[in-house]
Design brief:
- Belongs to the NAD(P)-dependent epimerase/dehydratase family. dTDP-glucose dehydratase subfamily.
- Helix 7 (about 200-205) runs parallel beside helix 9.
- Helix 1 links the parallel strand 1 and strand 2.
- This protein has a domain at about 1-190 and about 225-250 and about 295-315: NAD(P)-binding Rossmann-like Domain (Rossmann fold, 3-Layer(aba) Sandwich), CATH 3.40.50.
- By secondary structure, the protein is α/β, with parallel strands linked by helices.
- It has helices at about 10-20, 60-70, 85-90, 95-115, 120-125, 155-175, 200-205, 225-240, 255-270, 300-310, 315-330, 330-340, 345-350, and strands spanning about 1-5, 25-30, 50-55, 75-80, 125-130, 180-185, 185-190, 210-215, 220-225, 245-250, 255, 285.
- About 45% of the residues are buried.
- Strands 3-2-1-4-5-6-10 form a seven-stranded parallel sheet, with helices on both faces.
- The structure holds nicotinamide-adenine-dinucleotide and 2'deoxy-thymidine-5'-diphospho-alpha-D-glucose (DAU).
- 2'deoxy-thymidine-5'-diphospho-alpha-D-glucose binds near residues 201 and 297.
Length: about 350
């Protein structure tokens, strides 16, 4: 049994779907179901007893203590977070609450549980914290890619709150001996990505005939990784990572935002041409830049490859084609997300499941 937090969100739901597709070890999914939590993502597990969903907050000590005592997981994987940089600029408080305080309370509950385990279980236990490359700050064009020893220089309330959580996780290892692992990953894309983030927003806006807003000059660079590859990296780190270590995860795929928009538009031109025959790129529009916008992120994923033998399976070319195809095949999912109807899922489908 493993406890996965935030597994109704984008990466967490992909992680649980993949996990249960390749092994039978049950999962407790603890998710608060914020606007980003969507049980529609896990509808294929509706009648699957290996998936136990519990609606709740990682900061709710009584609830987390109870879950740990009752289910005795051998690992906790912490995806739960407020994840959107723009939202953190407009309202940082939820980010401090969940990413910092929530992670602190979760660590305290886990520490209590872990310290009372019998020796054999204690040495097998793992707490894997899922974090981001944004904690390292912004690179100039000539800087080397982020390695695990790069100084933390977070620039947004989101990245600062994630940096704080990373530091707490590290401290719980050094101070209490908690068996932790941390992963810092670059930008994910793929199925179930909430359409507030660049790639899904461009796909759904393009199809709806809406503008495709590019911040500033569109020359900001990100490293992009297909979400299933991030999930396989996490499984690998959980299985073989060295306790207390940090692993950078990335796709070796740096690209300016404007290039991403062009690629998405090109795929849509091919797979779902506009009714008027014009190219989707005509919908692109430059808008005011994000305040404090980081110019470049780049991940050096040498350590995870060298020490754990992990490499991404998808190139950007194959991953983005699968992603655009997924959105074209799952227009109902998009409609439900956009209408807010997914928020009724719990009442209609999951009552009494926890
Ligand atoms: P997401 O916003 O899609 O999902 C977050 C999930 O956490 C949601 O289901 C939400 O309901 C849940 N949640 C939020 N607050 C909670 C709380 N207090 N208690 C319990 N559940 C709560 O995010 P995502 O993109 O899937 O990211 C997951 C994790 O991966 C985050 O920690 C994020 O920082 C990290 N990460 C994301 C990316 C990316 O590109 N998306 C890259 C690197 C790291
Ligand atoms: O690097 C990892 C991070 O990637 C994760 O930790 C975050 O949780 C995740 O949201 C993501 O952060 P970004 O800010 O990089 O992702 P976003 O999709 O919001 O933006 C990607 C880039 O595209 C960024 O430079 C801002 C730009 N952008 C974004 C949107 C939504 C636009 O130009 N237009 C837009 O409409």
């Amino acid at each position: 049994m493993i406890l996965v937090t935030g597994a109704a969100g984008f990466i967490g739901s992909n992680f649980v779907l993949d996990w249960l597709a390749i092994n039978d070890e049950p999962v407790i999914n603890l998710d608060k179901l914020t606007y980003a939590g969507n049980l529609d993502n896990l509808s294929s597990l509706k009648d699957d007893s290996r998936h136990i969903f519990v609606q709740g907050d990682i900061g709710d000590r009584a609830l987390v203590d109870k879950l740990l005592t009752n289910h005795k997981p051998r690992a906790v994987i912490n995806f739960a977070a407020e994840s959107h940089v723009d939202r953190s600029i407009h309202g940082p408080e939820d980010f401090i609450q969940t990413n910092m305080l929530g992670t602190f309370h979760l660590l305290e509950s886990v520490r209590g549980y872990w310290s009372n385990l019998a020796d054999a279980e204690k040495s097998q236990f793992r707490f894997l914290h899922v974090s981001t490359d944004e904690v390292y700050g912004s690179l100039s064009p000539s800087d080397p890619a982020f390695t695990e020893t790069k100084r933390y220089e977070p620039n947004s309330p989101y990245s600062a709150s994630k940096a704080a959580s990373d530091h707490l996780v590290r401290a719980y290892h050094h101070t209490y001996g908690l068996p932790v692992l941390t992963t810092n990953c670059s930008n994910n894309y793929g199925p179930y990505h909430f359409p507030e983030k660049l790639i899904p927003l461009m796909i759904v806006n393009a199809l709806a005939g809406k503008p495709l807003p590019v911040y500033g000059d569109g020359m900001q660079i990100r490293d992009w990784l297909f979400v299933k590859d991030h999930c396989s990296a996490i499984r690998r780190v959980l299985e073989a990572g060295t306790l207390g270590e940090v692993y950078n995860v990335g796709g070796w795929n740096e690209m300016p935002n404007i290039e991403i928009v062009k690629i998405v538009c090109g795929l849509l031109d091919e797979m779902r041409p506009r009714a008027d025959g014009k190219p989707y790129i005509e919908q692109m529009t430059f808008v005011t830049d994000r305040p404090g916008h980081d110019r470049r992120y780049a991940i050096d994923a040498t350590k995870i490859e060298r020490e754990l033998g992990w490499r991404p399976a998808e190139t950007f070319e194959t991953g983005i084609r699968k992603t655009v195809a997924w959105y074209l095949e799952n227009e109902e999912w998009v409609k439900t997300v956009q209408s807010g109807a997914y928020r009724n899922w719990l009442e209609t489908n999951y009552s009494g499941r926890s």
